[in-house]
Fold:
Amino acid sequence: MNAKMMEGLVGAKTNVDLINTPFRVYKEAERRGDTATMERAMGYVNDFTYRAEEYAEKAEEGTIEDAEAAREKEEQERELAIEKRREENEELEDRIKESKEENTVSDTVEISQDGQLMLKENGGIGTGDSDGIAPKGTVSVKTTDAPDMKPVIYTKTGEASQPKPSGGTPVINSLL
Structure:
């Protein structure tokens, strides 16, 4: 709330309150039939009413100025927030570029003979050149002969255990 608005509100209220006195005098003069006093009292009432309206206009101007100041402040805060986000995005992009440049890691996948056959049958996985070297940003596939490996099941403790052959009838047959 700015000073202009406060001045307008206080002035308008004061003048509205001051109207009561000359209006009371007007009513008394009217009962007595004193027209000169009635005219004088009504002049004061009109004067106070006019002043109250002026102060009300001043309060309205103060309200408008206050709203404009609030809009300007909000706009400045919005611009600062946008600028801050831009800076954060630039910093993030710089970090991403640095991490890509510093932490380039290539993974190599070795595929067994069976896997090589499946790749040929399925048309490959889009690894790039025929020599097994992939372009940057893709998977590099290197084919080798791998020994036959049996599936392994791990326990909760992380130890490898071999699957146990079932000696009885399957569960499905026993339910039927």
